[in-house]
Amino acid sequence: MSIVVNLNTVLADRNLKSKELAEMIGITEANLSILKSGKAKAIRFSTLEAICKALDCQPADILAYKKE
Amino acid sequence: MKIFGPKSLSAFFYYIFRSITIVLLAFLTYMEFAFITDRFTITDGRFNMKIPLTGSSIDGNYHSSDILTITLILIFGILLLYLLSNIFKALKKTVIFNKGIIKNLKLLTILNLIIGPVLYFLIHYPIMHKTEFRNIHNLILLIIFGMISLFLTYMFQKGFNVQSENDLTI
């Protein structure tokens, strides 16, 4: 997929672990792992909002478009 | 009563069809064993075979073509019922759009649209040497069941894709 999820980079910048983020936004670690690995087919606005709120960032910091 | 999922109508049909499959398989095994070991009587060119535990018996023309026909029809019936029981087993799960049901519906389609008609013509001409074309309703029923299962296969395939996309929406 040409949409890249940069969640690992944002998490590293904020010294946060996946488990902590999953707890903060109320999703399972398994689902967060699917999102990080790029296997997810779609992301809900509510999930994106929760991530942005928890990490204090913009959607563009997490998602990027890369030409294949 | 629930239609799908555990403790549902699907679960009930699964046990019914699986039980009939086992009984038919046991019956076929016994019949073949009885033919091999001569555990039957022949009167006026007809065989008579006692069915244990039931007190009843089966009889028919004692010709290899008749015995082969009975065997082939029983094998076909066992396969059909086994696949039906597998389909209901898959519908017993919480998520009904699963790979198991698609696989079994595909096999049911092949059984009804290919194996069934081939068996029908095989029994009709090379085995029984019939000259007239009779019992065509069996062939029509096979094709109707085959077409229904073909459409169901693609419906469940679509459902599986939608389910997968939904599961991968975070």
Outline the structure in words.
The complex is a heterodimer of chains A (68) and B (170). Chain A is mostly helical and 68 residues long. Chain A contains five helices and two strands. Chain A has one domain (3-57): lambda repressor-like DNA-binding domains (434 Repressor (Amino-terminal Domain)), CATH 1.10.260. The radius of gyration of chain A is 11 Å and the shape is globular. The mean pLDDT of chain A is 91. Chain B is mainly alpha-helical and 170 residues long. Chain B has one domain (9-167). Helices cover 69% and strands 8% of the residues of chain B. Chain B has helices at 9-36, 64-91, 99-127, 136-167; strands at 41-43, 46-50, 57-61. Chain B has a three-stranded antiparallel β-sheet, with no helix packed on it. In chain B, strand 2 and strand 3 form a beta hairpin. Chain B is elongated and about 75 Å long. Chain A binds chain B through residues 27, 31-32, 34-35, 39-44, 47, and chain B through 164-165, 168-170.
The helix/strand order of chain A is EHHHHHE
Spatial sequence of strands, sheet with the most strands of chain A: 1-2
Mean pLDDT of chain A, to the nearest integer, reads 91
CATH T-level topology of chain A: 434 Repressor (Amino-terminal Domain)
Share of helix among residues of chain A? 55-70%
The number of helical segments of chain B is: 4
Q: What is the class of chain A in the CATH system?
A: Mainly Alpha
Approximate shape of chain B = elongated
Broad shape of chain A: globular
Give the tally of β-strands of chain B: 3
Question: Would you kindly provide a brief summary of this structure?
Answer:
With 68 residues, chain A is mainly alpha-helical.
Map the helices and strands.
The complex is a heterodimer of chains A (68) and B (170).
Chain A: E1 3-5, H1 7-13, H2 18-25, H3 29-37, H4 45-55, H5 59-62, E2 63-65
Antiparallel strand pairs in A: 1-2
Chain B: H1 9-36, E1 41-43, E2 46-50, E3 57-61, H2 64-91, H3 99-127, H4 136-167
Antiparallel strand pairs in B: 1-2, 2-3
